[in-house]
Design goal:
It is a single chain. The chain is of the alpha/beta class. Helices cover 31% and strands 12% of the residues. The chain contains 15 helices and ten strands. Strands 7-6-5-4-3-2-1-8-9-10 form a ten-stranded mixed β-sheet. Helix 3 links the parallel strand 2 (61-65) and strand 3 (88-93). The chain is globular and about 60 Å long. It starts with a helix and ends in a 16-residue tail after the last helix.
Length: 388
């Protein structure tokens, strides 16, 4: 699959841009370890220049993120510049201090929507974020919807909220949210200190089909969007992918191929979720916009090598024998990194083969795939009815 992308050409269709690492919350699952701003964050003038370079590369879908992006002075000016250049721009906020002035700024900037983070109902959300934060984010949603701004919600699935997805969907619909993105908590960043709250891999056997079921009942008024760390082959797979996609299955991580991430200090990565200086990691940083143009960083021959120059030898564990290894390439690069960098147990297909749940697969696994788990404690019969 990477060869197909290579022939089509690498260009950033989508970008998540961290305007600041400053944040007014200290969430347990924050992969960015947000809190204090970086010492070298880009000035507004620098951001406006980078905005021109980003759209000049062909990027047309841009998310302004953080930290808490509204803590960056001029966030709305960056948004306005991007919109004026022809991009669709939205913003992700925790909603803690969102008020009427932010709504006015977002509207004047021409943002196509705003996304807020909700991680369960009040008990679960406040446990992950801060006491009282649930009430505030719901108020932010209602204020924005009343003002005519399209509102989406992001939810990080974990042990505390994984049994609440169906009821949470109805709650969001009642508050006139139009889109809901789901992602799994990953044991990096702050979540590395709360691994007990990460959903265990075997729970994918009921969680992923449930998410697929939620996707099947999508409507023009409300849609569920699984993020790139959910799924990978098996019976639920077609429902997890966009209905207008010609190939309705996972086509591999697009970081550095069709996706780009920009940190507030100017570092460029294939995906904003990938670790960098806050994690003591440098391998995913491709350059800095203060030192080179964004085009030069993106176009360097050996840039984003983990994806653009992918070799199957990079894979380990079950991924190395999986029949989909050339297409999947180990799944979400962030999730793979969190598990050691060579394999990905947070894969529906992996877990279905491991636990002998062949009824969840479109066809029987290969001999090599089954043999990989021979002699291992797969717990095949204990998973079938594991949904709470």
């Amino acid at each position: 699959m990477i060869e197909v992308l290579r022939r089509v050409g690498f260009f950033p269709r989508a970008c998540v841009w961290e305007l600041t690492l400053a944040c007014n919350l200290r969430c347990k699952h924050c992969g960015s370890i947000a809190g204090s701003k970086r010492a070298d964050e880009l000035s507004l003038d620098e951001c406006l220049r980078v905005a021109g370079e980003l759209v000049g590369l062909g990027c047309r879908r841009i998310t302004l993120s953080g930290g808490e992006p509204t803590m960056y002075p001029g966030w709305n000016e960056v948004g306005r510049r991007l919109v004026e250049l022809g991009a669709r721009v939205n913003l992700i906020s925790n909603g803690l201090t969102w008020m009427a002035k932010h709504i006015e700024q977002a509207q004047k900037a021409g943002l196509c929507g705003v996304a807020f983070s909700i991680d369960g109902f009040e008990k679960e959300h406040d446990e992950f974020r801060a006491p009282g934060s649930f009430v505030r984010v719901v108020r932010a949603i209602d204020l924005s919807v009343a003002a005519g701004i399209p509102v989406a919600v992001n939810t990080t699935i974990n042990r505390l909220n994984q049994g609440l997805l169906k009821s949470l969907r109805q709650f969001l619909m009642d508050h006139r949210v139009f889109a809901w993105q789901l992602q799994f908590a990953t044991a990096t960043g702050n979540m590395g200190a709360h691994r007990d709250l990460v959903s265990p891999p075997e729970d994918l056997l009921w969680l992923v089909p449930q998410i697929a079921e939620l996707c099947r009942i999508n409507s023009p008024e409300f849609k569920v969007y699984p993020s790139d760390d959910i799924g990978y082959f098996g019976n639920p797979e077609p429902d997890l992918r966009d209905s207008d996609t010609a190939l309705p299955f996972w086509l591999g991580c697009r970081a550095g191929c069709q996706v780009i991430g920009i940190e507030s200090g100017g570092n460029v990565k294939g995906c904003l979720s990938l670790p960098s200086s806050m994690h003591g990691e440098a391998r995913f940083v491709e350059g800095n916009v203060r030192q080179k143009s964004l085009r030069d960083i993106w176009s360097r021959a050996d840039a984003f090598a983990y994806n653009r120059l992918f070799k199957e030898a990079q894979l380990g564990g079950f991924c190395r024998v999986c029949r989909f290894r050339d297409i999947c390439r180990g799944g979400c690069s962030w999730a793979t990194y969190a598990q050691g960098g060579t394999g990905n147990e947070n894969c529906f297909y992996h877990q279905a083969v491991k636990h002998r749940r062949f009824d969840l697969l479109a066809e029987e696994p290969t001999e090599d795939e089954v043999r990989y788990f021979d002699g291992r404690a797969a717990g095949a019969t204990s998973i079938a009815g594991g949904q709470p």
